[in-house]
Amino acid sequence: MSEATERSLVLIKPDGVARGFVGEVIARIERKGLALVAMEHRLTTVAVAKEHYAEHAERPFYGSLVDFITGGPLVALVIEGPRAIAAFRQLAGGTDPVEKAAPGTIRGDFALEVQFNIVHGSDSAESAAREIGLWFPNL
Ligand code: RTP
Ligand code: MG
Question: Record's GO cellular component, any one (predicted)?
């Protein structure tokens, strides 16, 4: 039985770009078998960052998270494949790169701090649709 094709929004966050992990992250996506549908290296406006992380608006780290995401260029991608949303979350590893992300995952291999965890991936079909509309309105 083949799984339904899905799309997910991936961000290589400013820490991942600054540390030179763009190629590494894309290579892992491709090696998993996921396709690249769109990709853009860009600076992020405060408005887009706030909208992207709107679910965290009441959290104490929201301001610092928005500052971080807008603080330098990032790479936004849309990826596609069977169970792409869960597949990329598996590649990324858990949010806390030390306590939750296993070695072998992007966060487990390359990050130490919760905020500076290299990548974002949509967490559900609803989030993916919302986030792809926000980052790639012409897609
Ligand atoms: P993301 O949305 O970026 O893919 O990460 P996630 O689902 O694994 O984690 P989420 O709970 O949605 O948190 C979003 C991002 O906020 C930063 N964060 N900082 N200082 C903190 O306690 C804290 N908690 C979360 C991280 O950059 C996290 O990825
Ligand atoms: Mg999240």
Answer: cytoplasm
